[in-house]
């Protein structure tokens, strides 16, 4: 073995080197486990549910006959519920985060709110379902509707949106704020023209991750009484006459993808399990699509900004 | 103290003290600022030069727990700009600032310079164009950027970015400009360009500059204040401070014996 004078003189022991390699190996293994689990899941779903995917699967209502059953009300329901969730949680969450980060005085009360926010993000989703049942269904009498479901999921992801937005706002360097203030900008001008645009990438990423958590939720929606077998669509959000938009759908009953899956899985016939796998595949593609969008947006906004 | 400042005062600082919470960072500073001249603040790190500078545009108001005492009287009106009844925005509208590290907005060169005008309500395109060109010429940057005004400011070199920040501050016609070690992140060529610029600018504005580079203070300033541990040790014409300082501490510092 050739001697290595550099290594001898620098005093790096071979033991250190081996330890280094050992950790690299352990890290690699850990990564393979998580990637492997995902791959197994995806192939399983693909093999089982893949053949079930067809145009008819997307355009059919559920049925007593597994071969004729489809996910039409489920994916329409999911999209409508997510729309309500996004429209509610996004402006509320961003506004709350801007207030907490830029306007609120820093003292024990804001510290308490911050701790609470972190706790709320960890509350099990079914607890939100119970609260929504009491508040939206019984007190406000919104019914077991798309509106109730959207608001419930909005409450569920609100803490996540607030925390992600605060994180993104905090990452905007002080020097940028000071540059705006030194020119005579007001607080709102600084936030509106500089802080929020610079934080957009981070905020969008947080939003999409929050929404992709909401899209997979079933427990809170079952608590408020989502139907699991539904053979009609909600009212269309448009109409032929002025003002062309209709909001009747907000109060319609609904189902969503995870609940449809749950319904199918809990049936004894094997053919329905295949349907569940097919629906699972669609849901997974929806979620992966949203995550992909988050990554794309983050990369896009990062390109514009460098500190 | 120079007995005759040879030109009308732009500002008169009287018994200024400043506190970060309970920590006193500036102790009873009294210092006149001559109009249309460059006044340099020198002193070792942590002596309070930057803290002092940031009092002039009420930058400390952005963070909680800060407190001023004393007066900074701004002329010609003779108002005390650190009085709580004075709106910090009104002060910043008249006193511009250039920071230690170039901090352009993540926008185009044009929008960087136009920003101060826009928040003052300017919307007319041709008027903005004219002001932007004037400011960029004032900052000796026009010829380098006139063909790419709508490119991102981040694509400029460090020295160009700093001159862009100067142009941004100039665009709103301030009476008074604060420079916080504007050359500390720049190479020697860029530094000398900024220094030349300072000499031109003082025809129009009053300049207060913090620097830890004594040669720079000697080159660009008319008056120099030496600060140490939150106190003003000596203030005089730059020539006197560097050739014949009255205080032993000042002499030790300018001759490089400590700092």
What can you tell me about this protein's structure?
- The complex is a heterodimer of chains A (307) and B (259).
- By secondary structure, chain A is an all-alpha fold.
- Chain A has two domains: 14-50; 54-304, MetI-like (MetI-like fold, Orthogonal Bundle), CATH 1.10.3720.
- Chain A has helices spanning 5-10, 14-49, 55-59, 72-103, 108-122, 125-139, 146-170, 174-182, 187-214, 219-223, 257-265, 270-304.
- Chain B is built from ten helices and ten strands.
- Chain B is an alpha/beta fold.
- Chain B has a single domain (9-254), classed as Rossmann fold, CATH 3.40.50.300.
- Chain B is 35% helix and 26% strand.
- Chains A and B meet through helix 8 and helix 9 of A and helix 2, helix 3 and helix 6 of B.
Shape estimate of chain B = globular
Biggest interface, and residues per chain?
A-B, 23 and 25 residues
Task: Indicate the proportion of strand residues of chain A.
Answer: under 5%
* CATH homologous superfamily title of the largest domain in chain A: MetI-like
Runs of chain B with pLDDT <50, length 5+?
Answer: none
- Radius of gyration of chain A over alpha carbons? 25 Å
| Order of helix and strand elements from N to C terminus of chain A | HHHHHHHHHHHH
User: Which percent bin holds the helix content of chain A?
Assistant: over 70%
Q: Give the overall pLDDT of chain A as a whole number.
A: 86
Span between N and C termini of chain B? 23 Å
The H-level CATH homologous superfamily of chain B, spelled out, is P-loop containing nucleotide triphosphate hydrolases
Class computed from helices, strands and strand pairing of chain A:
mainly alpha
The helix/strand order of chain B is: EEEHEEHEHHHHEHEHEEHH
Query: In angstroms, what separates the terminal alpha carbons of chain A?
Result: 49 Å
């Amino acid at each position: 073995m050739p001697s290595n004078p550099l290594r001898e003189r620098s005093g790096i022991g071979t033991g250190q080197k081996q330890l280094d390699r050992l950790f690299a190996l352990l890290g690699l293994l850990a990564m393979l486990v998580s990637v492997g689990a995902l791959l197994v899941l995806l192939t399983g779903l693909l093999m089982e549910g893949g053949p079930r995917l067809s145009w008819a699967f997307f355009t059919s209502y559920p049925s007593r006959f597994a071969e004729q059953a489809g996910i039409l009300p489920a994916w329409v329901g999911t999209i409508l519920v997510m729309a309500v969730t996004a429209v509610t949680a996004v402006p509320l969450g961003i506004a709350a985060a801007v207030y907490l980060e830029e306007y609120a005085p820093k003292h024990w009360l804001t510290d308490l709110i911050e701790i609470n926010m972190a706790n709320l993000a960890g509350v099990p989703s079914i607890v939100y379902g119970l609260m929504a049942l009491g508040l939206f269904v019984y007190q406000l009498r919104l019914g077991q509707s798309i509106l109730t479901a959207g608001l419930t999921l909005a409450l569920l992801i609100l803490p996540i949106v607030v925390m992600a937005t605060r994180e993104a706002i905090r990452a905007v360097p002080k020097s940028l704020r000071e540059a705006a203030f030194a020119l005579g900008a007001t607080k709102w001008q600084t936030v509106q023209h500089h802080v929020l645009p610079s934080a957009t990438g981070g905020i969008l990423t947080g939003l999409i991750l929050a929404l992709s958590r909401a899209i997979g939720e079933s427990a809170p929606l079952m608590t408020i009484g989502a139907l699991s077998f539904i053979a009609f669509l909600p009212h269309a959000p448009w109409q032929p006459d002025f003002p062309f938009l209709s909001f009747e759908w907000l109060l319609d009953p609904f189902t969503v993808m995870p609940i449809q899956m749950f319904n199918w899985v809990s049936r004894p016939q094997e053919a329905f399990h295949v349907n569940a796998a097919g629906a699972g595949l669609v849901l997974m593609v929806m979620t992966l699509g949203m995550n992909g969008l988050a990554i794309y947006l983050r990369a896009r906004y990062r390109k514009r900004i460098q500190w | 103290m120079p007995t005759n400042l040879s030109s009308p005062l732009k500002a008169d600082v009287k018994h200024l003290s400043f506190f970060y919470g309970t920590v006193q960072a500036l102790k009873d500073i009294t210092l006149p600022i001559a109009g249309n001249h460059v006044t340099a603040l020198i002193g070792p790190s942590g002596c309070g030069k930057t803290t002092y500078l940031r009092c002039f545009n009420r930058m400390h108001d952005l963070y909680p727990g800060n407190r001023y005492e004393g007066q900074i009287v701004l002329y010609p009106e003779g108002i005390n700009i650190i009085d709580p009844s004075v709106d910090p925005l009104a002060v910043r509208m008249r006193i511009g600032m250039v920071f230690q590290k170039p901090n352009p907005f993540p926008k185009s060169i044009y929008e960087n310079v136009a920003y101060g005008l826009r928040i003052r309500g300017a919307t007319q395109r041709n008027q903005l164009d004219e002001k932007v060109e004037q400011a960029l010429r004032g900052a000796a940057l026009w010829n380098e950027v006139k063909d790419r005004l709508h490119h991102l400011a981040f694509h400029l070199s460090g020295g160009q970015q700093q001159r862009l920040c100067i142009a941004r501050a100039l665009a709103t016609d301030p009476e008074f400009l604060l420079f916080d070690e504007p050359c500390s992140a720049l190479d020697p060529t860029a530094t000398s360009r900024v220094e030349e610029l300072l000499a031109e600018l003082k025809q129009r504005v009053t300049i207060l500059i913090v620097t830890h580079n004594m040669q720079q203070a000697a080159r660009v300033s008319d008056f120099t204040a030496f600060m140490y541990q939150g106190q003003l040790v000596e203030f005089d014409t730059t020539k006197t401070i560097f050739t014949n300082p009255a205080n032993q501490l000042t002499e030790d510092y300018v001759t490089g014996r400590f700092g």
